[in-house]
Amino acid sequence: MAERMLTNREVASLLRRIGDILDILGEDRFRVQAYRRAADNIEALGQDLADLWRAGQLQEIPGVGKALAEKLDELLRTGRLGYYERLQAQVPEGVVDMLAIPEVGPRTARLLWQQAGLTSIAEVKAAAEAGKLRQLPGLGAKSEANILAGIEALARRSGRTPLGMAWPLAQELLAALRATAPGLLRAEAAGSLRRWRATIGDLDLLAAAQDSKPVMAAFTALPQVAEVLLSGETKTSVRTHAGLQADLRVLPPDRWGTGLQYFTGSQAHNIALRELALKRGYSLSEWALKRPDGSELLCAEEEAVYSALGLSWIPPELREDRGEIEAADKGTLPELLELRDMRGDLHAHSDWSDGAASIEAMAEAARARGYAYLLISDHSQGLGVARGLTPERLAAQRAEIEQLNRRWSDFRLLHGVEVEIRSDGTLDLPDETLAGLDIVIASVHSGLRQERERMTARVVAAMRNPHVDIIGHPSGRLIGQREESSVDLDEVLKVAAQTGTVLEVNAHPSRLDLDDVHIRRAVEMGIRLAINSDAHNPGGLEVMVYGVATARRGWATAADVVNTRPLDEVMGLFKA
DNA sequence: GCCGTTTTCGGCCCGACTGTTTTCAGTCG
């Protein structure tokens, strides 16, 4: 067995790398796609690939057949893959890296390598600057400039943008477009924004108008636009001053349904849906459902697209080709959780620790949202930077909360704490203190770089403490800033299923932790979730919408989430 | 490479846009 079991992500990235090399070598594109598809599905597992391997169930993963199962077996058994190593010997690493340059695909990378002898992005840049690329067959001065611009964009780009930053930007662009574009009938965000993915590549916007030209003109004239990247009759791409790329597609209103369906994606969902359409006698594109005789079935609404294919409408959050089409076909899609199902928030801070507002202000903000309860869960003593609370200050805080609770008949403050899970796995407050609180969240904030076994043991120890009710932001990731800790979430889920510990879906857009993939696995395992804002000021409660969307991406229903329940049920749940 | 209520062989989504082309290849989503 390998010294250290490879993570799903590491395996997926190796498979993608194989796909890239095969692509550059000019292999059959469906073989290339097979590696990429398998990589996606392994990343979407939510449980350790190694577990499936031990159970002999690798081929149950969609897109993994006999050949890939054999390769995965070798990889998991030995930590190496001979096939990959032989491929690596054929194409220099720097050539594979060139695929990351916008405008450079497999054919161009191969051309740059074999015809010009370039083997790294740096060499391509130097050659472009020296005007040597334009001499290559099929490339001209414009291509050379585009490649150079692509390399610069690559260096500038910091990867995908967190949902919490992209969403407001998209709304701003849409509002500006609605205000200025002549003849605009509808305009909405599509793409990964509409699917509420945790991170966004480009902003995908869709508009309906009889005449696209004035809409395109208004779009490129928006003050947010820094540069027009490409513009055609139905599609325009721009770079905004914020650095994000935004794509606008314009369609006539009677084709809005197929257009929105197409532009929402995901690509994998669209491919699977279009394959199904072919089986059911249609060719599906953004323009229409086309019958074999060439006649078109136009769909002004998205529901009509799915129903024409015999499917129930699929919520955008589920459109990742992870079984949603089969479920829609059988009529077994889950009734997803809605924002309005949320009756309270079980993670909020006040100015007793590192929050910015009084308990009273936080309570009134929660009441204004229509909540029936709010858990005040300030940090514990060990987190010095957050002015964490000692047992004595917690007792004083309890008195204030009891005082405030006399005020309302329709709302209740709950008293809790977000207790530190210390490096050795012990908790930062004594059991007798924890026993006196309504709900205890246990979280890791320090020692995040511990190795996997120790980190996992810490969290598991906390879960086994009978006073701990919820594990806060279980993976510790900060999107775009910090990878998740080394904690073995697979093990955490297994223990949660035993102990009944609730796992948090931290709704802050920089966390979204648990992520969608592990939420889905938790739901399958019957683990209860709490979707919490982790608010540090009254406005912070508003991030709940991101947490709900992430839970929806994990196929969660209201029944899976404890803070959809009324106060008495919640209290009963945590007392037990 | 995978996959199968039309197939175990022969399929594998579909279209927009650009650049370098005289009709199409490459890239992207």
Q: Any idea what the CATH architecture of the largest domain is?
A: Alpha-Beta Barrel
Number of strands: 17
Q: Which percent range fits the helix content?
A: 40-55%
Structural class: alpha/beta
What is CATH's topology name of the largest domain? TIM Barrel
Q: Give the strand content.
A: 5-15%
Described by strand count, sense and barrel closure, the largest sheet is: 7 strands, parallel
CATH class of the largest domain: Alpha Beta
Which spans of ≥5 residues are poorly predicted at pLDDT below 50? none
- State the strand order across the main sheet: 11-12-13-14-15-16-17
Radius of gyration: 26 Å
The number of domains is 5
N- and C-termini, Cα separation: 42 Å
Number of H/I helices? 24
- CATH homologous superfamily assignment of the largest domain: Metal-dependent hydrolases
Question: Shape, please?
Answer: globular
